[in-house]
Amino acid sequence: MRILIFGGDGYLGWPTAMYFSARGHEVHTVDNYLRRRAHQELHTDSLTPILDSLPARADAWRQVTGYRIGVTEGDLCDWPTVERLFQEFQPETIIHYGEQPSAPYSYISREHAVFTQQNNVISTLNALWAMRDLAPNAHLVKLGTMGEYGTPNIDIEEGYITIQHNGREDRLPFPKLPGSWYHASKVHDSTNIHLGCRVWGLRATDLNQGVVYGIETDESKLDPRFATRFDYDEVFGTALNRFCLQAVIGHPLTVYGAGGQTRGYLNILDTLQCVELASVNPPAEGEFRVFNQFTEQFAINELADIVQRAGADSGLEVTIDHVPNPRVEAEHHYYNAKHSHLLDLGLKPHTLSETLVESVFARIQEHKDRVIGDAIMPRTRWRPLDQVPQSISG
Amino acid sequence: MRILIFGGDGYLGWPTAMYFSARGHEVHTVDNYLRRRAHQELHTDSLTPILDSLPARADAWRQVTGYRIGVTEGDLCDWPTVERLFQEFQPETIIHYGEQPSAPYSYISREHAVFTQQNNVISTLNALWAMRDLAPNAHLVKLGTMGEYGTPNIDIEEGYITIQHNGREDRLPFPKLPGSWYHASKVHDSTNIHLGCRVWGLRATDLNQGVVYGIETDESKLDPRFATRFDYDEVFGTALNRFCLQAVIGHPLTVYGAGGQTRGYLNILDTLQCVELASVNPPAEGEFRVFNQFTEQFAINELADIVQRAGADSGLEVTIDHVPNPRVEAEHHYYNAKHSHLLDLGLKPHTLSETLVESVFARIQEHKDRVIGDAIMPRTRWRPLDQVPQSISG
Question: Are strands B320-323 and B26-31 parallel, antiparallel or unpaired?
């Protein structure tokens, strides 16, 4: 399969490129280093050292494995770049990770909110028009987020819900309640992609992904130069990864608020499995398919407890702090999100265990000297400090 | 009330400015003449002659009525412009018509789709950030469209629907199925504004407006220089307005496809009433209120019949043509959209009658010599011509 990977330099994009390349697919990656620049702007960095550029990563990959990963350093909001990629590579599958992926980043300022939405919406619009004119049979595998749904008081279905109303019935897009300008940008993308499928007959899969944890994949283990980035800072770090790092460096785990916030989680190994399952089982012409991509639900307090117990096993003394919640979100709420479609396609979940957490500890230990301590505590607030805090209900 | 009107040079924006000004409100308008430039690009024009600029219109208004309408010629995507407006005018109500308003325009090319979404989403995002920091108690009255909902097979509620599911219940945003990049941009706006209300406690009313018809308001009648624009071309004209013009010039009425497409409609006089009712009855802090703003539902075939009958009364021989539908839309479908909230606030509808259509004929007659005949037939297609047409079901 010819697979074009948008955002191929990222936490998930690079492991995805290696994964498909190792399985004999023809892989081409694109990235404009947005994530690297954002870290420079915020004076943060990946815990793991990563090679300087995507071409350097692809070179190392080829030296060790003999496989070639194609690289374009460019911006997906720039139409000539997108057009040339589609013309020259003629993708059969487009895996789209190429977006600004952080909720806190989108709240830093008006400029950051506008940038997030403009970057994410326009890059995806460009992909849809490129598919229409240059690859009408290709399959767009788009990374969305479980955060598009928010925390409704009913079960979350996979993309659609059948509604009975006043004696009639329809299967309609599941209502969305995003909690940040970033999450809203993904809702906009979903709306746009669905339209492209309905009007132009495009094929797309929206993967509403949960929070990913983990540091290592089968490919990343082969050579230190294959490491993917590992972020733990308040802007780009995800909850469990940050807790693991805090445990290792002796920092209290920073639970935001009451800690009842419940979300879907998955191991980075399962991201790769899911993206592969979606890619090798494309939807029909005109179908906008939505999968909820996670394996287990946890409340933040449960994650903190697991990390604390794993710490005890590893001889780490782990304490838990409830810090004022910088976000506006329900801290106690109903949450039950369906996630059967990928299991039906054959997903074999790697569930979270203390053993896995301990293996993450071990990898973090190796790079402990690289930790930037003052990047951990939350600074970016959803609501300006001079506004009276309000709690919202689930 | 201090009322800031985005898009004050437009078909509805200018009559709204006069309406509030005549009632003693302090009115400031902003426009970047996007609509005038788009007409130049497409070699089309308003049927009614309108003054050259917004300052010229405001000058004429002041000469005749003594009332002052403030003017800023500027782009709402330009933050310094928005910031200065909020700082200097300190609006209590922001009425937001300032968007690219045409579905066909958004399908002309990739550039037009990208421009539409960028322009509409970013101008609204700027408004939300300006409210957050400079006018947290102001009320945003945002013009949305009934087209956000599409044509679901269940009754369309006003913005929210209570869903019972697996033994639980929640009141959630009504699912959206927009049919064009333009309509999708309004869905994005609704998502963003809802988020601004939930997170920052902003007040907003989303007016999901039907298709507006009519040419004259109490204020526009006072002086020929107060005329608002009247578009009949395939890109910016709306269905009933175009049919009236076609009747007058002896062009067959161009019904797209089977003509069973049903939508909500309202008289321009009722747009003014609705916007006033929303403005003088602001929502609570943090409330995102949604009204469906139309007074009657019609299938396109019914509109064509009304115009044909009114034509017969006026001595016009009106024929009806079913032309190939350039759009991708259901041509037979269920449609029942609720619209009680504005009636509850006191809206007194002007319903559509043959008498009203005849009065529109009379005004069109006056400017018959200005008609650009080749702007009427549909040229802009939702789907490229080389794609096999598919019909979609309701």
Answer: unpaired
| ipTM score assigned to the predicted complex | 0.97
Contact criterion met (CB < 8 Å) for A154 and B168 = yes
- The residue type found at A243 is F
Contact call for residues B124 and A117 (beta carbons, < 8 A): no
Condensed to tens digits (0 to 9), the pLDDT of residues A213-237 reads 999 999 999 999 999 999 999 999 9
CB atoms within 10 A of CB B260: 16
> Do the beta carbons of residue B349 and residue B266 sit within 8 Å?
yes
Residue B10 in domain: yes
Residue A385 falls inside a structural domain: no
Q: Is residue A359 part of a domain?
A: yes
Number of Cβ within a 10 Å radius of residue A393:
9
Task: Give A154 to chain B, closest Cα distance, Å.
Answer: 6
Identify which of B198, B218, B377 has the alpha carbon closest to the alpha carbon of residue B285.
B198
- Amino acid present at B301: N
DSSP letter at A337 equals B
CB atoms < 10 A from the CB of A251, how many? 19
Number of domains in chain A: 1
CB contact under 8 A, A178 and B168: no
Q: Are the C-beta atoms of residues A192 and A199 closer than 8 Å to each other?
A: no
A186 is catalytic: yes
Which chain B residues touch A152 with a CB distance below 8 Å?
170, 172
Minimum-distance CB partner of A110 among B114, B129, B168: B129
CA distance B200 to chain A (A): 6
Count other C-beta atoms under 10 Å from residue A356's C-beta: 19
Q: Tell me, what CATH number does B280's domain have?
A: 3.40.50.720
| Contact call for A192 and B184, based on CB within 8 A | yes
Question: Whole-model pTM?
Answer: 0.97
Q: Tell whether B83 lies on the interface with A, counting CB pairs under 8 A.
A: no
User: pLDDT (tens digit, 9 = 90+) per residue, B97-146?
Assistant: 999 999 999 999 999 999 999 999 999 999 999 999 999 999 999 999 99
pLDDT confidence band for A387 (50 / 70 / 90): low
Confidence of residue A165 (pLDDT cuts 50, 70, 90): very high
Q: Min CA distance, A59 vs chain B (Å)?
A: 35
Residue B118 forms contact with A (CB below 8 Å)? yes
For residue A35, the surrounding DSSP H or E stretch is helix A34-42
The minimal CB distance from A200 to the residues B79, B200, B383 is found for B383
A79, A90 contact by CB (below 8 A): no
Q: Which domain holds residue A220?
A: 2-375
Which string of DSSP letters, residue by residue, matches B245-263?
Answer: HHHHHTPPEEEETTS--EE
Chain A CB contacts of B121 under 8 Å are 117-118, 121, 188
Question: Does residue B140 lie in a domain region?
Answer: yes
Minimum CA–CA partner of A194 in chain B: B177
Q: Is A93 on the interface with B (CB under 8 A)?
A: no
Alpha-helix residue ranges (DSSP H) falling in A175-298: 181-200, 239-249, 268-280
Q: What is the mean pLDDT of chain A?
A: 96
Measure A363 CA to nearest chain B CA, in Å: 37
Chain B residues within 8 A of A154 when measuring between CB atoms: 163-166, 168-170, 172
Three-class DSSP category at A31: strand
Task: Give, to the nearest 10 degrees, the angle between helix B181-200 and helix B110-134.
Answer: 20
> Could you read off the pLDDT of B202-237 as tens digits, one per residue?
999 999 999 999 999 999 999 999 999 999 999 999
User: Which regions of chain B does DSSP assign to beta strands (E)?
Assistant: 2-6, 26-31, 69-73, 93-96, 139-145, 160-165, 168-173, 203-209, 211-213, 253-256, 262-267, 288-293, 296-299, 320-323
User: Across the interface, which of B117, B126, B165 has its CB nearest the CB of A125?
Assistant: B117
Secondary structure (3-state) at B295: coil
